[in-house]
Specification:
The protein is mostly helical. Helix content is about 80%, strand content about 0%. It has 3 helices and no strands.
Length: about 120
Amino acid sequence: MTSNGTGDGDTEALRAEIRRTRVELGETVEALAAKADVKARLRTSAEQAKERMREQTAQTVARVRGQAAQGVEAARDRTGPVVQSGLRAGPAPWAAIAAGAVATVIVLLIIRGRRR
């Protein structure tokens, strides 16, 4: 047995073992306290759930945007060229103009008929 002037070696070994045990016990108490802190655990769970929802939302938005872009491309392929104003070139704008002209003529005829 070794002696270093403060006691024999068994005493020092025992003190070192006590220090290690205190450290381990402190870690165990901290772990138990963390498990017992229900509010903190709920906050952590809520944050994790929020993050999962953010990720799922981002994925869904990206998927929907991709599908919408594909739908727009498919519609363009079916309907033909697009004019710079964003309106489709074809019969629909002319039909609206013709309907407006007919409505104007009818209103003018009604006004003219009342004057007589």
